[in-house]
Amino acid sequence: MHENLTDLHLLRELEPVVEKLLNRHLSMSKDWNPHDYIPWSDGKNYYALGGQDWYPEEAKLSEVAQTAMVQNLLTEDNLPAYHREIAMNLGMDGAWGQWVNRWTAEENRHGISLRDYLVVTRACDPVELEELRVEQMTRGFSPGQNQQGDLFAESLFDSVIYVTFQELATRVSHRNTGKACNETVADQLLARISADENLHMIFYRDVSEAGFEIAPDQAMHSLHRVLRNFKMPGFTVPEFRRKAVVIAVGGVYDPRIHLDDVVMPVLKKWRIFEREDFTGEAARMRDDLGKLVEELEEACEKFEVSKQRRLEREARQAEKAAEKKKSFAASTAS
């Protein structure tokens, strides 16, 4: 058993596994064309070409669906930063490099198709969307940031373990966004994107699993660091907190989904709480992850209480607005 291996040694040890998983991925993945999932017949020119610029009444998606889809797109927009990070940590040689380029090519379809859908259907303000894209990409991204924004040491294990959870979270978010859109084409598009993300997650999950076999203590240090400091890559999007609340209350991605559909399935697949090959500090970190799960469970319960209060408050506000509108209509009629 090898412990405290350098990233270079880990890359070499894991390369046969990566090559095998890359070939499996290529056999399972299904290429698709972004243009096939865009309702082009719904489109029309904007002002610069003699048409009409966007106005709010054209947006047909609910606030939850629109917020989630735009958030998903802005997250995908940072692909150049993700490619840079993953290339720096995984390298561009051999099977690792082939995977990095293949992954980037597949991910690029997501931003293309989401933007085309939103702009063609006029589901959001395209000018604001472009301004947000520039802002988001200018901010860049690094997965090695904790809740205070401080950098923690990155390693190969940090990268593949982080992306395992991130890809699964993104898969869930895209799928639930599609359902929230309540529109057939959007649902089909986001289901297609979600399928891509699922295969990406499986690749990283299984590379990480192989890493746990090679250097369990080293992998546990990274797993603990990642989960204790986990943030979705879209946390750099302007007004992220407000948007996250809208998305959570709308049931697209909330604390319960994060725990039950993202964190726990991966921990169970890796048998984190069943393994007996963690030693010393790594064993203590595994125990701390048990405490983290309890903390996440408590967060789920607190969120449900606050969510219910918010929904009740919004219902009262809507009722008052309706009464005010009815009263105004009655006074106007008289």
Automatic annotation (TrEMBL):
Sections of the chain in a coiled coil: 282-313
Q: What keywords tag this UniProt record?
A: Coiled coil, Fatty acid biosynthesis, Fatty acid metabolism, Iron, Lipid biosynthesis, Lipid metabolism, Metal-binding, Oxidoreductase
Basic and acidic residues bias spans: 314-326
Q: Which domain of life is it from?
A: Bacteria
Q: Specify which residues bind Fe cation 2 according to the UniProt entry for this protein.
A: E107, E167, E197, H200
User: Hey, which family's this protein in?
Assistant: Belongs to the fatty acid desaturase type 2 family.
Protein name, entry field: Fatty acid desaturase, type 2
Q: Which organism is it from?
A: Mycolicibacterium thermoresistibile (strain ATCC 19527 / DSM 44167 / CIP 105390 / JCM 6362 / NCTC 10409 / 316)
